[in-house]
Amino acid sequence: MKKLFFIFRWIGASVAAFLLLSGFVFFYSNTGVHINNPDGSTDYVWMPGQIKATASEGYAFFRMDRNGFNNVSTKERNIDILLMGSSQMEAVNVHPTKNTASIINGLNEELYCYNIGISGHQPITQIDAKGMFIEKDVEHRMAFSQACTNLNIRYIDMTDDFKNYYESKHVLAHGFNNTAVGVGHLNEHGHMLIAKRIAEEIKK
Amino acid sequence: MSLTSFWFLVFFAILLFVLSLLQQLRKKHSKAVLLQKLCLLISSYLFIALNDWRFSLCIAAISGFTYYFGILIENKKSKSILVFGIVFLSAFLAVFKYTNFFVNSFRFAFGNDTVTLKIILPIGISFYIFSCIAYLVDVFKGKYCAEKSFLNLALFISFFPKLTAGPIVRANEFLEQTKEYHGIELKNIGDGLQIFVFGLFKKIVLADHLNVFVNDVFHAPSAYGTFTVMLAVLSYSLQIYLDFSGYSDMAIGTSKMLGYEFKPNFNLPYIAKDISEFWKRWHISLSSWLKDYIYFPLGGSRRGTARTYFNLMIVMIVSGIWHGAGWTFVLWGGLHGVISCLNKLVGKYLKKAGSILNSILTFVLVSLLWIIFRAESLQNAFDVFKSLFSFHDGISQIYIWSFVALTFVIVSTIVAIIHSSGKGSFKTRQNDVNGFYPILNLNSIFGASVFLTVCGLTLLLGYFGNTAFIYGAF
Q1: Residue B323 is among the residues annotated as catalytic for this protein
Q2: Is B283 helix (H, G, I), strand (E, B) or coil?
Q3: Of B212, B396, B455, which is closest to A170 when you measure between CB atoms?
Q4: Mind listing the pLDDT tens digit for each residue in B246-292?
């Protein structure tokens, strides 16, 4: 009987701990559910309308749109600019109003930008021991640039924008205040710089 | 194999299972206790060999030497045998740990480039060599008898929970428990597991996250603004405390599960009101070793003021060199010595400033000295100091884990002050504050729920990059 009480006590404690931890994870790192999208423009989408939370790299708490992408607007509009890209564009690490698509929409109200960014891989930049801005993967960027040229796609290189911004303001385009410095995904400054540059190119 | 690795948990679970089987056997066969000790010794050597098989040969050689010399010293009562024993053990440590340092210091002095000789650094060598020296000295002084059982002495030297980063347990403390080994008990497993998880939380959740930020800033100090460098220095003070005390907690918790009780190695060091008190609260087992086996034999404070200062300098420089083979450690130890001397000289005047102000001043001093300790070179330390005091612009990183760790340390300290047994006013309690382990009653649903939640949080928030224990390198 004593052993039975012991087992029940631990089952009760496990359930209580599970509920507490689930509540914590909901706000700390709620990745969400993938839905495979083999015939679509991205490999997968997120479950439409699901809540996502990130606090392990940057901070964000938001709801995916009705198509399973990260967009603020709920209105049905014609898409003028389709923003594709990796997890950098997916932007689950910044507040939805501070990602590239939202900033472009704020800068240019006549055109509607829609974001279908979904996780992938990308080259990143970093600073060296003397605090100088360096690119970590130049070959990757050059190959990408060459591929764009071959396919007649206009390629905008953000390296100088990031570098100038760092050298004038000491602010990096990647990383958050809960991660290594300048490493990882685009932060709100990175999104702002990209959005401004795209908006400028569209105006041209 | 680190105490934070998954394979250690598997290794330890198997060991506990085997020991519990032998515990059952003890009811029928009195010899089963011997098997339990043998099991602990084999598992300790396995733990060492899993890091590098040559390390187990080193510790076996040292165990044999210490066992033989312990008996020899007891029989002959010869000081020269003791001196030979101490010199041999010190030389053993010096060869493995300091050869590159000595060679490169000479080469640098004569204008040659540095070289790195491929010499292994056996795991925990600084810790077990100090334990062996203490054992020989204590036997010579007649504090206790030389251990006649090689099994017991070998287990004392190689006992794996304390091997990597201490605490430096005294032989009598360990051997008494070994001779009357009670084996494993459910209550001890519950309490030890909680202490282990408490230490694991400090290590992988707090210290390892701080490590990310500290590494960034110390790698390129000139790139960061002054406030960020200040935050990094504060973060390192917290990191080294949480890392090392976390390891000590895990070692103490592991030992408790195996049936051994060790005293805490840290006692809220950052509330110390002067540098002398800091060393009574920080890495207590090393501080008391240095006091008992270097400071007192040199005469302590009984041979006049000048000799006291000299003794303090020697002790602190030895402490610095013990921590690492590099000039940064020598300088760090030397500066601690200078501050200890200054404390003896003007400490009584500073006491009038009030205990809280003195605690802050001591913390700032200790934190500034940690810069030298952490720096990869004297130039790197200079760069950090330059960035710290030049008030220049640079990257601003308000690292959130620094504030999480700071809150943890402050709240723990306040809880310890409230919990302290001393009665009377806040001021009275502050003078006699002792840390404690928050052990819960795992037989209650509340206690078990909180414990499981903390385990879950530790796994969820833990940083699982490659971050070794800082003191494991010493």
Answers
A1: yes
A2: coil
A3: B396
A4: 999 999 999 999 999 998 899 889 988 889 999 999 999 999 999 99
- Reference B439, options B226, B263, B187; nearest CA is B187
Burial of B337 (0-12, 13-18, 19+ CB in 10 A): buried
Domain-ending residue, one of B131, B160, B183: B183
CB-facing half-sphere around the CA of B335: CA atoms within 13 A: 15
Asked if residue B453 lies in contact with residue A18, where contact means CB atoms within 8 angstroms, the answer is no
Angle between helices A159-169 and A188-203 (to 10 degrees): 130
**Catalytic residue (one of B209, B283, B323, B336):** B323
Helices B208-219 and B378-389: crossing angle, nearest 10°? 90
- Is A179–B453 a contact, with Cβ atoms under 8 angstroms apart? no
CA distance B269 to chain A (A): 27
Whether residue A19 is found in the same domain as residue A109: no
Decide if B453 contacts A17 (C-beta within 8 A): yes
Interface A-B, measured as beta-carbon pairs within 8 A, has a size of 82
Which structural domain range is residue B279 located in? 189-473
> Is the predicted pLDDT of residue B217 greater than 90, yes or no?
yes
Q: DSSP 3-state assignment of B30?
A: coil
User: Considering the domain boundaries, does residue B413 fall inside one?
Assistant: yes
Nearest chain A residue to B456 by CA: give it: A21
Band (pLDDT 50/70/90 cuts) for residue A108 is confident
Residues A103 and A185 in one domain: yes
Expressed in angstroms, the distance from the first to the final Cα of chain A is 81
A28, B445: Cβ pair inside 8 Å? no
- Distance, in Å, from the CA atom of A10 to the CA atom of A71, rounded to the nearest integer, reads 44
Q: Give me the sign of the Cα torsion angle A125, A127, A133, A137.
A: negative
Euclidean distance between CA atoms B113 and B276, whole angstroms = 39
Domain of A169? 77-203
Q: What is the pLDDT of residues B127-176, one digit of tens each?
A: 999 999 999 999 999 888 889 999 999 999 999 998 887 788 899 999 99
How deeply is A145 buried, as exposed, middle or buried, from its count of CB atoms within 10 A (0-12, 13-18, 19+)? middle
Tokens describing residue B131:
């334990």
Domain boundary among the residues B183, B209, B244 is at: B183
| Min Cα separation A132/chain B (Å) | 8
Cβ neighbours for B163, distance < 8 A, ≥ 6 positions apart: B44, B47, B48, B123, B124, B127, B128
Phi, psi of B364 (to 5 degrees): -65, -45
B399 part of contact set with chain A, CB < 8 Å: yes
Which residue of chain A has the CA closest to B463?
A: A56
Is the distance from CB of B447 to CB of B441 less than 8 angstroms?
A: yes
ipTM: 0.78
Interface contact A127-B395, CB threshold 8 A: yes
State how far the Cα of A67 lies from the Cα of A47, in Å rounded to an integer. Answer: 8
Are A22 and A88 members of one domain?
no
How far does the CA of residue B376 sit from the closest CA of chain A (Å)?
A: 12
**Res B101: pLDDT:** 74
Contact yes or no for B171/B135 (Cβ under 8 A): yes
